[in-house]
UniProtKB/TrEMBL annotation, chain A:
Gene3D superfamilies: STAS domain. This is Anti-anti-sigma factor. It holds the Pfam family STAS. The lineage of its organism: Bacteria, Bacillati, Actinomycetota, Actinomycetes, Kitasatosporales. It comes from Streptomyces capoamus. It comes from the Bacteria. Coiled coil: none annotated. InterPro entries: Bact_StressResp_Reg (IPR051932), STAS_dom (IPR002645), STAS_dom_sf (IPR036513). Residues 10-121 form the STAS domain.
UniProtKB/TrEMBL annotation, chain B:
It comes from the Bacteria. Residues 1-24 form the signal peptide. Keywords: Phosphoprotein, Signal. Gene3D superfamilies: STAS domain. The keyword Glycoprotein does not apply. This is STAS domain-containing protein. Residues 38-149 form the STAS domain.
Length: 126, 167
């Protein structure tokens, strides 16, 4: 399950910027990595004072139903721990594919890029 | 004599085929032009873009609209996108579905989408068809939609004294 694929890092780095966690997804996300990421984010929110999570997917070429579900799950888990999740940097082609698949991710807050996402979090936080 | 008739007939056929081909090419080119021309994305204000939709909205056109709108959202860094359907003659369930898809795609890009210019007759049709546009933000006219987008961004437009006295 946790077998790292050749050429892919086994873990997605989770960066802390003040009280916001920044996750930048690159390329494909495998089952093991997704599980690890969910676990990482949840424990980071629980142990430190995190009020927001920004997930940057500008490096992702394709979002399938699996990744869509993972993102929604991360958002609702973070929500349970009182942290808001913002999905940032979706490419137009990805958005069109998602809509055509009927995956409109209704529970997720979205932003154009990481900059806007941070703005959104600080704006609502104050 | 027979050979001559045959030759003439063949010639006529060739001429006709060439003309038909040219016509088909023209129609195809014009269709392409219509697709491109009929869907301009206008920057209304800093952070606000609008697409005035004119004519019937079919799958091919709505695809073009969606693509150009999303590109414009990225280029202009728009927070608000207005879809104006004043020029759309009829709205059936398919057109409504296209609209909702475009709105959902814009939302995924982090922009809020407003549908404006629903004429009374169209509003009635939408209600009678039982189409649920509850998730879509709607305004009566393009100016109402722009006013909403501006107020949401904290922009206030007011008349200056100089402008008032010039009237």
């Amino acid at each position: 399950m946790n077998q790292p694929h050749p050429g892919h890092p086994a873990q997605v780095p989770v960066l802390a910027l003040g009280d916001v966690l920044l996750v930048s997804l690159q390329g494909e996300l495998h089952d093991g990595m997704a599980e690890q990421l969910q676990h990482d984010i949840t424990s980071r929110i629980a142990t430190s004072r995190v009020t927001g999570v920004v997930i940057d997917i500008s490096g992702v070429d394709m979002v399938d139903s699996f990744l869509g579900r993972v993102l929604a799950e991360i958002a609702s888990t973070a929500g349970l721990l009182a942290a808001r999740t913002v999905l940032a940097g979706m490419r137009p082609a990805v958005a069109i594919t998602l809509v055509e698949l009927g995956l409109t991710l209704p529970g997720l807050v979205t932003a154009l890029d990481v900059d806007r996402a941070m703005e959104l979090l600080t704006q609502r936080g104050s | 004599m027979l050979a001559l008739t045959l030759l003439l007939c063949t010639l006529r056929l060739v001429v006709m085929e060439t003309a038909l081909d040219a016509n088909a090419e023209l129609i195809e080119r014009q269709r392409q032009q219509l697709l491109e021309v009929a869907t301009p994305v206008i920057k209304l204000w800093e952070g606000t873009v609008a697409v005035p939709l004119i004519g019937t909205l079919d799958s091919a056109r709505s695809q073009v609209v969606m693509e150009s709108l999303l590109e414009a959202i990225v280029d202009q860094r728009a927070r608000y996108a207005i879809l104006d359907i004043t020029g759309v003659p009829t709205v059936d369930s398919l057109v409504a579905q296209h609209l909702m898809k475009t709105v959902a795609a814009a939302r995924l890009m982090g922009a809020e989408c407003i549908v404006s210019g629903i004429r009374p007759a169209i509003a009635q049709t939408i209600v009678q068809l039982g189409i649920d546009l509850g998730t879509v933000l709607t305004r009566a006219s393009l100016s109402d939609a722009l006013a909403y987008a501006l107020s949401k961004q904290g922009i206030e437009v007011s008349r200056t004294d100089a402008g008032a006295s010039a009237r």
